[in-house]
Specification:
With 243 residues, the protein is of the alpha+beta class. The chain is built from four helices and eight strands. A hairpin with a 2-residue loop joins strand 6 and strand 7.
């Protein structure tokens, strides 16, 4: 048995039995490893350093958790922004390609109006229209639609008694849109209700029309005397003859 002088300070001497043969049973003992410095005699974990309390550890845990949450939120915002920019770039590329193909669709529409869309050309045209429709291209503009300056471009104007407001009376060129984006407005002729009747002459509106029958002249109405040029002498007047 030996006394460890390093462990005897402060808590009293510690006696360890280092004999390889157990005096009671006579059997060989297994060799035990020396405990690591800083560990307790029972082999438990070392005590926490002085000055470190549970509240400090909890505060550090909350701080690390907040940092992780902030990093996760920043990553999610970055991912959403990248996905949105990628989708906008894809839509812009499709819109540019479809805008370049609109003259081809106009030629196909004119050929259909003149009944020239027959044979193999008809099959190719229908396949082409189906392909652009899958990309989200739609046409708009029909006779009778209410005129909307956001999607219509007025090239002609007229008046009609058959409408109650600005109405598309003729479609000169159909418009095209992709989803909610207008690629080309519809070019139309607009008809509005007829203009109201013109007011009467200015004289009648001002109340200066001809005098009504039986009305007296201004002089009579004012009470001033009037004379007739033919009646130079009144009957029985002082200037008459002595008759």
């Amino acid at each position: 048995m030996t006394v460890d002088p390093d462990e005897s300070t402060g808590r009293g001497p510690v006696i360890r039995d280092r004999r390889r043969v157990d005096p009671e049973t006579g059997e060989l003992r297994e060799r035990q490893e020396t405990a690591a410095p800083g560990s307790s005699a029972a082999g438990g974990p070392s005590d926490p350093p002085s000055g470190s309390t549970a509240s400090d550890l909890e505060a550090q845990l909350l701080e690390r958790t907040a940092d992780l949450q902030r990093l996760q939120a920043e990553y999610l915002n970055y991912k959403r922004r990248v996905d949105r920019d990628r989708e906008n770039a894809r839509k812009n590329a499709i819109a540019s390609s479809l805008t370049a193909l609109l003259p081809v669709l106009d030629d196909i529409a004119r050929a259909r109006e003149h009944e020239e869309l027959t044979g193999g050309f008809k099959a190719v045209a229908e396949s082409f229209e189906g392909a652009v429709a899958k990309l989200g291209l739609t046409s708009f503009g029909a006779v009778g639609d209410e005129f909307d300056p956001r999607i219509h471009e007025a090239l002609m104007h007229s008046y009609s008694d058959d409408v109650t407001g600005p109405t598309c009376s003729a479609i000169l060129q159909v418009g095209y849109a992709m989803s909610e984006r207008i690629l080309r407005p519809a070019r139309v002729a607009v008809a509005e209700p007829s203009q109201p009747a013109e007011p009467g002459p200015a004289a009648e509106s001002d109340g200066a029309g001809p005098a009504e029958a039986g009305s007296e002249p201004a002089e009579v109405a004012s009470g001033s005397a009037t004379y007739d040029d033919n009646d130079s002498v009144d009957d029985g007047g002082p200037s008459g003859s002595g008759a």
